[in-house]
Design goal:
One of its GO terms (molecular function) is ATP binding. It is found in: Cell membrane. This is Iron complex transport system ATP-binding protein. The protein contains nine helices and twelve strands. It is of the alpha/beta class and 265 residues long. The chain has two domains: 184 residues, P-loop containing nucleotide triphosphate hydrolases (Rossmann fold, 3-Layer(aba) Sandwich), CATH 3.40.50.300; 71 residues, no CATH class. The chain has a six-stranded mixed sheet with strand order 6-7-8-3-9-10, with helices on both faces. It has a four-stranded antiparallel sheet with strand order 2-1-4-5, covered by helices on one side. α3 packs across α4 and α4 crosses α5. The chain is globular and about 55 Å long. Bound molecules: adenosine-5'-triphosphate.
């Protein structure tokens, strides 16, 4: 039996004495795309922090590619799991190719001979996100959307089989949002990646992910196929909007059309 790419069992975590995640269990199969959705402050980024180990869990346990989280060194973990955080601070004084090269660190030996071997995956990642020609531009001088694509190229260059992407479409215009989501979809198929994304746009989450996991107040509200999860009740009760939900003729995925903020009782 193959083990899941990533799972969490009765996970709890928080900040100092403030509990945020309560008894979260989830399992993500290899090759699956899971989208985490939930209102602001529901615990999505905190869950990513607990899954990657940047925040210590206060209870439960996490398995990453068949091993308990923490059983690998940071470098070994980075070969298996890549995290694109939400709006990372722009690094000063480095170029796009230097930033993307940082994605190759887990694969480097102690000697720097391997840098030549890293040039091809770096160039490929830059081209995939549409930044060919920007290699020598300073990251801090890029537009928000260009910079976000540079971070995405760094994640691609890391060549890990499991991706955690926290709002990867931030700063992108609508066309670039879809280009990026389609790129993730294609790379997942070509490379057998497991993808977990935080997405605020519920329609994009429902369009691209195999499964949606809804968080609110640090607990799992729903976990299932987009057509089972996205309902007018869920949108009213947990996202605070009155919306209609229909099935798109072309994609056969649910689409919601929000009309107004839901009035609280
Ligand atoms: N470093 C921190 N210290 C203390 N509390 C924090 C910290 N980071 C987040 N929190 C709190 O934890 C809760 C969950 O935050 P988190 O960032 O995980 O939510 P989120 O679902 O990712 O939200 P958003 O959609 O707004 O990005 C919030 O109440 C937030 O204020």
């Amino acid at each position: 039996m193959t083990h899941p790419a990533l799972s969490a069992h009765h996970l709890s975590a928080g900040y100092r004495s403030e509990p945020v995640l309560r008894d979260i269990s989830l399992s993500v199969a290899r090759g699956e795309w899971l989208a985490l959705i939930g209102p602001n402050g529901s615990g999505k980024s905190t869950l990513f922090a607990a899954l990657t180990g940047s925040l210590a869990a206060t209870g439960g346990h996490i398995m990453i590619d068949g091993k308990p989280r923490g059983a690998r060194t940071a470098r070994e973990q980075a070969k298996v799991l890549a995290l694109l955080p939400q709006s990372p601070p722009p690094p000063a004084g480095i170029t796009v190719s230097e930033l993307v090269m940082q994605g190759r660190h887990p694969h480097r030996g102690a000697l720097r001979f391997s840098e030549a071997a890293d040039r091809a995956p770096v160039a490929e990642a830059i081209a995939l996100v549409g930044l060919a020609g920007y290699e020598d531009r300073y990251v801090e001088r890029l537009s928000g959307g260009e910079r976000q694509r540079a971070w995405m190229a760094m994640t691609i260059a890391q060549a890990a089989p499991i991706w955690l992407l926290d709002e990867p479409t931030t700063f992108l215009d609508l066309g670039h949002q879809f280009e990026l989501l389609e790129l993730i979809h294609t790379l997942r198929e070509q490379r057998g990646l497991t993808v977990i994304t935080v997405l605020h746009d519920i329609n994009q989450a429902a369009r691209f992910a195999d499964r949606l996991l809804v968080l609110n107040h640090g607990t799992v509200i729903a976990d299932g196929a987009p057509s089972d999860v996205i309902t007018t009740e869920l949108l009213r009760d947990h996202f605070g909007v009155e919306a209609s939900v229909s099935i798109d003729d072309v994609t056969s995925r649910p689409v919601c059309a929000p009309r107004a903020a839901a009035r609280s009782q």
